[in-house]
From TrEMBL:
Pfam families, per the entry: Glycos_transf_1 (PF00534), Glycos_transf_2 (PF00535)
Entry keywords, A to Z: Glycosyltransferase, Transferase
Stated name of the protein: Glycosyltransferase
Cross-referenced CDD domains: Glyco_tranf_GTA_type
InterPro entries per record: Glyco_trans_1, Glyco_trans_2-like, Glycosyltransf_2, Nucleotide-diphossugar_trans
Family matches, as Gene3D superfamilies: Glycogen Phosphorylase B, Spore Coat Polysaccharide Biosynthesis Protein SpsA, Chain A
E.C. number(s) listed in UniProt: 2.4.-.-
Length: 819
């Protein structure tokens, strides 16, 4: 229940009402079958509930469940069809009545009650289909009950246990990797199974100062805390034997003394025999409770050690340990079957109960040292808390990713904004995305993806979101790199759009960059172009503000020449998506498998490849989808991009070198660069930019879509003769390379470079005729071609462009023009 409360708190914070069925109508061996709720304590945001009408199902009683369990023990599948059907009806009726949108199942695979487990599967299938829901069920078999007690449930492959199913409505979770492995060993065909570890939530309030006084514990007395059910399997007697070896220490036992009166009496007698100070504190409020009563948090605030010396054969994963980690209290434990799997990396004295049933003097010495050595205690607490915080963040991210907040019914556009340390810029960027003309703020949202920022970017964005008419979702992506962040944001938006009733209209994913500002009609014009042409991808225009380049005429001229070329080719071919601002229709995005991250080796380690936007566009275009250009949709580029990269371009390193294209951190300059380029530097910058531009923007489109060469405007641009010869040569190269290249990262570079080098003089002639004489002539060829005979030029171009060991072609073309 504790893990359920932690998981569902995030949903409650999103506005969901949380109803909890404690399962008294499921298991017969707890002595609570059909029992009314009486003194159960849950946070005030939780409503205790149960399935309506279960008690009225004929034949469904404790005897029925007991008989079911007997059948399981004999490996027989009992006849439960009638009861199963009526249980499923009752569950569906209850969900309909409550308006259920999400279901969390804890320990759902219960072999002793086959009827209820089957009914739950039936109800999920019926309810999910009726309401067109996606994976609305979070199903966690926390204790792997079907394999944890073989004497009760039988052995592998558990023939009488209801099998887990590949439902389109269920996402399964295991507690750790070993539980996942065991689950897949039993159900190897199972999909949608992830690891959701225990979480460690810090206290929401400080402990009450009067806790010791109210329980009669002296201020100088050390406290070992034990909060658990008081039953023989929990082996609380071990704690009594431990405390007997620790002078000045008392044992505080928080639990229901009436659940097993005989065990409570036995423990009281043992405490008296050992002369151990012990406090039976009764049932405390849950850690999450904010009531006036004492809670587990109050105990933790005063405890020196939290104990979990449970038995070896009683499989439990120890919420007490999790609460200790969260509260910053050291813990001790016994090495039960999966302890090292669940708590790998955490530090604590661990009693090996296969060798020693009771605490040894050496174990007691280690516990005493941890309680009294302040430096050692602080080290252990800091280590465990750091590891616990990471585990909690992993679990929170997984739940948020798979079960994202509900999307507004009117939203048709999700703008994905990757960010990294943009505190100085993020307000202005969000303001430009918010202030869009002629579009209802309720029809689009912003998904801000924080990529491990170390400044105040996220805090500033959250404050902005509080007063924004546009819904702003903030998520995080741990793997560094803008491509990884862009993919995470788009996947998040796709899932949220799929989790609602889809009215059927086209849904769009927009990409924006955190250091650029969009014009007021960026969204409107991009959406209009996408709708008009029914395109899969929409590409906007971009520009630089002349005010940022005052006094730098040579640099400004080089920039403008590149953008003039871009305007011509984009009007002809539609261009390719650029992370600074593009749109993709959801169905096309999913059709090509979304954004793929490519990796390259740099200095002995893997780095992710930067050109995810271009690679994605190539996959979309190569799959037969259309791309449209929206010239009135504009993005202003931050000049810091030019200022940061210009030195690398001038020195010939460009966007990485030797075939490696990596993301660099582009920070604002202090003070801003104001010095113009020399004539030689301007020429170098222009040549790198045009060498990058021409293969990508003039050749690549017709390489991917040769039918462009049949269009009148394209034929007019190239001229009939050149268009014809280009088409023939593309067909030859495609046939020649059909089995050579497989990934977009190479499949567009090599043939584009080859065609550029073979046709460069003619293509530049057409650019001069169309764009202007100042475009000039092709940059000089690499020196390696000086000795190549003209008759063998195309042959050696092939070797040059395919030489990926040295990366010579990459270094020549720059692979990312600075403009």
């Amino acid at each position: 229940m504790v893990e359920f409360l932690k998981t569902t708190k995030s949903f409650a914070d999103q506005g969901y009402r949380v109803h909890l069925d404690l399962g008294y109508d499921i298991k017969a061996d707890k002595g609570r079958f059909f029992q009314d709720y009486r003194h159960e304590r849950v946070p005030d945001w939780v409503t205790l509930d149960r399935v309506d009408g279960v008690a009225r199902i004929a034949g469904y009683d404790r005897e029925f469940v007991a008989a079911t369990l007997e059948s399981v023990r004999s490996n027989e599948l009992p006849d439960t069809d009638r009861v199963t059907a009526e249980l499923a009806d009752a569950i569906v009726r209850t969900w309909e009545d409550r308006g259920v949108a999400l279901v969390v199942v804890e320990n759902g695979t219960l072999p002793e009650n086959v009827a209820y487990t089957k009914a739950l599967y039936q109800a999920i299938a019926r309810y999910g289909a009726a309401h067109e829901l996606g994976r609305f069920v979070l199903w966690r078999d926390h204790d792997l009950m079907w394999q944890s007690e073989p004497a009760k449930y039988g052995s592998f492959p558990y023939p009488a246990t209801p099998p887990m199913v590949n439902s389109p409505h269920i996402h399964y979770f295991a507690l750790h990797g070993e539980a996942k492995r065991r689950t897949l060993e039993w159900m190897p065909q199972l999909r949608n199974l992830d690891v959701l570890p225990n979480t460690f939530t810090p206290p929401i309030r400080p402990g009450r100062l009067d806790f010791r006084e109210r329980h009669g514990i002296a201020p100088d007395m050390k406290i070992i805390a034990r909060f658990t059910r008081i039953i023989p399997q929990k082996r609380i007697d071990r704690d009594l034997h431990l405390v007997a070896q620790l002078p000045g220490t008392c044992l505080f036992i928080a639990g229901d003394t009436e659940e097993n009166p005989a065990e409570t009496a036995k423990l009281r007698a043992l405490a008296e025999e050992l002369q151990v100070p012990v406090v039976f504190g009764g049932v405390l409020e849950p850690c999450e409770s904010a009531s006036e009563e004492f809670s587990v948090r109050d105990l933790l605030a005063h405890a020196d050690i939290v104990s979990f010396l449970t038995s070896y054969d009683y499989e439990s994963y120890g919420n007490p340990i999790g609460e200790a980690i969260a509260a910053g209290v050291p813990y001790i434990a016994s090495r039960y079957a999966l302890y090292d799997t669940v708590y790998a990396g955490f530090e604590a004295p661990v009693l090996d109960i296969l060798e020693h049933d009771l605490p040894t003097p050496e174990f007691a010495r280690r516990v005493h040292d941890l309680m009294t050595n302040a430096e050692r205690r602080a080290e252990v607490v800091a280590h465990n808390r750091q590891l616990g915080t990471h585990t909690r963040e992993v679990a929170d991210e997984l739940v948020t990713t798979l079960y994202p907040p509900a999307m507004g019914a009117q939203v048709r556009l999700s703008v994905v904004l990757p960010v990294y340390n943009e505190a100085a810029n993020i307000d202005a960027v969000l303001l430009s995305l918010q202030n869009q003309d002629d579009i209802d703020p309720s029809t689009y949202e912003i998904v801000l993806v924080d990529n491990n920022s170390t400044d105040d970017t996220v805090e500033i964005a959250r404050r902005f979101a509080e007063n924004s008419p546009v819904d702003i979702q903030v998520i995080s992506e741990r793997e560094q790199g803008v491509a990884c962040a862009r993919r995470a944001g788009m996947e998040f938006a796709v899932r949220r759009s799929r989790n609602r009733k889809d009215p059927g209209e086209r849904f769009y994913l927009m990409s924006a960059d955190a250091d650029c500002r969009v014009d007021r009609r960026w969204l409107t014009e991009l959406l209009a172009a996408m709708e008009k042409d029914k395109a899969a991808i929409g590409v906007c225009d971009y520009y630089y503000n002349a005010e940022h380049f005052v006094g730098r005429p040579r640099l400004w001229d080089a920039i403008q020449r590149t953008l003039r070329c871009r305007a011509v080719t984009f009007s002809l071919f539609g261009g390719f998506p650029d992370g600074k601002g593009f749109a993709v229709e959801r169905e096309a995005y999913e059709d090509v498998g979304g954004i793929e991250i490519f990796y390259q080796l740099q200095h002995g380690r893997f780095v992710n490849h930067l050109s995810d936007d271009w690679d994605f566009g190539i996959r979309v275009a190569g799959s037969g989808h259309d791309i449209t250009y929206a010239p009135k949709s504009k993005v202003e580029i931050n000049p810091r991009r030019v200022n940061h990269a210009i030195d690398e371009v001038i020195t010939g390193r460009a966007y990485g070198n030797d075939g490696i294209i990596v993301m660099r951190d582009i920070r604002p300059e202090a003070p801003p660069v104001t010095v113009d380029l020399t004539e030689a530097e301007a020429l170098q910058a222009w040549e790198f930019s045009i060498k990058d531009f021409t293969p990508k923007n003039t050749i690549l489109p017709v390489l991917l879509t040769p039918s462009f060469l049949d269009e009148d405007a394209v034929v007019e641009f190239f001229g009939e003769d050149l268009a014809h010869r280009l088409g023939e040569r593309i067909a030859e190269i495609k046939a020649e390379m059909s089995v050579t290249d497989f990934l977009p990262i190479h499949s567009y570079k090599t043939p584009s470079y080859r065609l550029y080098l073979e046709f460069r003089d003619e293509i530049f002639a057409r650019l001069r005729a169309t764009v202007g004489e100042d475009i000039g002539f092709p940059p000089p060829l690499p020196e390696c071609f000086d000795s190549v005979p003209a008759a063998r030029f195309a042959e050696f171009v092939k070797y040059y462009c395919e030489d990926r060991e040295s990366g010579e072609a990459h270094n020549y073309f720059g692979n990312g023009g600075v403009f």
